[in-house]
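Bit of a strange request maybe. I'm writing a small parser for structure token strings and I need a real example to test against, not something I typed by hand. Could someone generate the tokens for this chain?
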Amino acid sequence: MTAFETYFTSLREKNIAVLGLGVSNRPLVRLLLEFGCRVTGCDRTPREKLDPEVLELEQAGCTLRVGDGYLSGVEADVVFRTPGMHPNNPAIEALRQRGAQVLLVQDYRTESFLTRSLEEQGIPMVTLWPGSGESKLGLAAKKAARGVGLYRRFNKVIREFQPDVIHFHAFPDHMDRLDFPRSRMFYSFHAALERNLSMLGQKNTALLQSLSDDGLTFCGLTSDYAREIGARFHTDRVLCIPNGLDFDRIRSQRYSREELRSLFGIPEDAFLLGTVGRLHPVKNQERMLSILREVQKSRPDARLLIVGADQAGRADLLRRQAALVMAGR
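Reply from user aminoacidic:
Good idea to test on real output. This should exercise your parser:
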């Protein structure tokens, strides 16, 4: 039995609640049902307005709680929450107090939207190395830590908290030294596979292959991506976990195209490119500037809108670079 099958089989004896039945959670419900799990799907949409696909989930065995009061009295051992639902929702808080805990382990502390959100939710965080990763000193400390016992601190955290599973999504260069079953380790790729691997380097890519051979499970954002990962690492232990976007919530929001363009000084008929992500080198906004330069060869009126929280003063840098592109240099 694969790690994938082991995990979902282990959920059969638990009451599972899926909060939000938008397009991102429906594949999850179907997968849980295929493994014989007891699933309750909760959504605020009234029954008369439910999509046929949601009603098909009910026919397949999912219990539906919909409409007003859909979260009242929800009982569950395991909860999957749509990203569009605030984690401090009273119903979720009540379930959290009775349920499992999440622990974030980070090599070093960074000030980010994710860190602030986790703190607001009361999720405990353990920092393995002091200092910030955004300073030169912090980066140097991070590199040194890996050579002088970072994994030892991680093993101490494992012994103290005894996690059921461990999920990684960054550099894996100490994962092989952890005293933890490989079959309960998960690793996610968040960007194009070859770009991810080029950033990791040959040594870390080889390490992931070795861990995969020992039972590590990979996670990808789409079914095509998951197949690509499986082919690259010669494994069938790959989960498809869609990106955390509630498309129903996004579609329900209404904006005035004219007002937004006016707000940012973008001409009504200009060709507009956009990118969303924190302003950090790993997000590669420079690539979008290169694309803008190419697009302007056929559409001189093209504009680029960059949306994201500033980190380490990158907003000013990107503005200067964008000004050069707009000036044709």
